[in-house]
Amino acid sequence: MSKGPHGLRVLVIVPAWNEQASIAATLHEIHSCVPWADLLVVDDGSADRTAEVAVAAGATVCRLPFNLGVGGAMRTGYRYALRHGYDVAVQIDADGQHDPRFLAALVDRLDGADVVIGARFAKADDPYVVRGPRRWAMVLLAWVLSRLARTRLTDVTSGFRVSNRRAIALFAKHYPAEYLGDTVESLVIAARAGCRITQEPVTMRARTAGRASHSPVKAAIYLCRAVVALLLALVRDWPAQFEDEAEVRTSTTEPTTEPTTEPTSESTVEPTTDAPRSVAHPEARP
Question: C-alpha angle 106/91/236, rounded to 5°?
């Protein structure tokens, strides 16, 4: 297991659902940009060959038995990072929209924060353009979260972000699986738990495969659902503070167990090789 900047152990978590057309290129690019990071693909119940392609590309793959959504997949990834003692967990989409060349800069910003968002709209010359109700929703969400986090945030729906050990411990236990939970609600949880949240300007790209669906009707629906999701996140009770550091250290030093590649196996023998593998993770269910 290699180490990245400042001797940190970094895990890149890639939630993927039916992304066999883009996952290999995404993983190869990540590895070329940050060869010191380990790659974990959480196959979110894909019906295609996403898992097989990811293993062939050199990633460890955690297969979920059915589709849980990005939030459920990411909670699995954070639990994996916590159990295996990683210092930094990175979320990158499988569709190629997140440019891993910005990853090192995001990790560097963890010196003064617990969660760093790779943000669009942070610079005047940002080429990413969103209009209509979808943009209105983004502005509203950013305005509310900026006040909650007590810092300027321009893109709270970005799924490109990095977290340190404190945030990993929090998200492994409390990461939400509901609509927009993996972005907006997770930041509400982090802010209420005392996380220091900041952002780093990045440039997003178009999907490398597949097709994004946008229409005026869907944009209006997105606006309404975003408002509802934000209100629910704000009224829910979330942890007021992080677990005691001693508890976090204890949990990261406990012996780890991994089942074999067979989903029904109860084996608790940890593989003795660092070679890419596909596992049915014991924390597959949030």
Answer: 105
What are the structure tokens assigned to 286, written together? 């949030």
What is the gyration radius of the CA atoms in the chain, in angstroms? 18
Number of H helices, E strands in the chain: 9, 8
DSSP state of 183: I
Distance from C-alpha of 188 to C-alpha of 195, rounded to nearest angstrom: 10
Would you give the distance in Å from CA 228 to the centre of its chain? 22
Place of tokens 């509400």: 188
- Alpha carbon distances (Å) from 278 to 42, 58, 146, 155, 163: 10, 10, 39, 33, 24
- The sign of the dihedral angle between the CA atoms of 18, 19, 24, 30 is negative
| pLDDT one-digit tens code per residue, 30-64 | 999 999 999 999 999 999 999 999 999 999 999 99
Closest to 142 (Cα-Cα) out of 197, 97, 208, 193:
197
The answer to pTM > 0.85 is no
- Asked if 14 and 92 touch (Cβ cutoff 8 Å), the reply is yes
Give the integer Cα–Cα distance in Å for 155 and 189. 17
